[in-house]
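Re: your question about CPNE7 protein

S., sorry for the slow reply, the queue was backed up all week. Below is exactly what I fed in.
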Amino acid sequence: PRAPAGMGDVPEPCPQAPLAVLSKVELRVSCKHLLDRDTLNKSDPCVLLLMQSQGQWTEVDRSEVIKSNLNPVFAKIFTVDYYFEEVQKLRFEVYDSHGQAGVGTHDDDFLGGMECTVGQIVAQKRVTKPLFLKYGKFAGKSTITIISEEISGNNGYVELAFRAKKLDDKDLFSKSDPFLEIYRIDDDRSEQLVYRTEVVKNNLSPIWEPFKVSLNSLCSCEEKRKLRCVVWDYDSRGKHDFIGEFFTTFEEMQKAMGENKVQWDCMNPKYKIKKRNYKNSGVVVLLDLKIHRVYSFLDYIMGGCQIHFTVAIDFTASNGDPRNSCSLHYINPYQPNEYLKALVAVGEICQDYDSDKKFSALGFGARIPPKYEVSHDFAINFNPDNDECEGIQGVVESYQSCLPKIQLYGPTNVAPIISKVARVAADEERTKEASQYFILLILTDGVVTDMADTREAIVRASYLPMSIIIVGVGNADFTDMQILDGDDGVLRSPKGEPVLRDIVQFVPFREFKNVSGAGTRSCL
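Result:
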């Protein structure tokens, strides 16, 4: 397991101690001279990013499909964690997509692949390599270029909403089908594609969908850095018609905050020279701009936030009958069961960060008195008005008192607990003081029933001052937990929205229950 930000900065590493994350890296991909697999049109390329883990290649993300283009510049930005001491193997595979059928993986659709490491890309900043087909055969003159950029500490993002008015009509029998591209101009005068909007069909005054980009991607967190914005008329054969362009900066864009709007003349330089009375080729308007600052765990702590811990314990029937010695909840008068061992080992570490030493203690997945209805977020002290316990010992006592009174049941729904803590964190953030940071410690034996709802809840929670530590108890299959952790790829909601911050850390208790206290601390 790898340490969440701020939780692994204690010295004395143990054998299982995680590698320190040096940084997150953004990767931009473009290709040239791709093979043409289509009979009538050109190939419709898409790039798949795979990472090697324990000898197996796993897809972690993929780009958009670019229609009819053998020299694509992909708008998709891949984000990967860069572990300085680790050889992280990447594989980029380019495929010809087939409309609704999606990206095929047949040899006929394969346009070429390339392998490298994250370290190589970071060291060189720009890597261009030939694409290879199966058995080491060159894919013609095809090349792939990867440009890397380490994300700085300022991980804010901006939400932008653009529209245009009275654009030039480039089509003979209908109106233009406009889309907008934003490029960042770097110090060496090269241009990096930041975002490409969707195409709005048959409309000279389009309103494009609002979108989010990181400040790092948009302007390298430099407000005065020049941006080039280009409007095109979409062509299904890949030969898009240039409508016009304008230059701006993020500093200028910020005038669109609140009720204000900012607009630019969309200019075609050729028309400006040729036409005497040329004014513009339309106007582009920035309707709205919202800046969202993203703070790390350390930002909150160093800013004076108090830590508030909530413990959530899995009381589902899969843990076994507490009267049976095989149960993870076995009521043993002589020694603590697996849940108590995990609670004390992890809870005592967490207690160090908590100033008032009070823990909210919740349970989920059990039938509870008086009506014995299933609850997925009940106070284990049975006091819904005050679910706090005095220190980890208070949680232990409430757990021991609660266990004989409830009936272990199911299903294993984790989303209600996450949403409950998230609501408290959201209320705290709305006070504008944001004086508390919330950590949810979930103790569970494995498989999550409401996986889709849990992913959605985690994505929502990633916007709040909140982190989640999941401790796997017992020897069950923890595949779901590793997916939620997101170490093998960015966790996304069912609709595809990525987490804003990596807020989940999964720890299998069996891997460090015999390690010393200091060792356990650094494994977290």
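The two ends are 8 Å apart (CA to CA). The first strand starts at residue 21 and ends at 32.

Happy to talk it through on Thursday.
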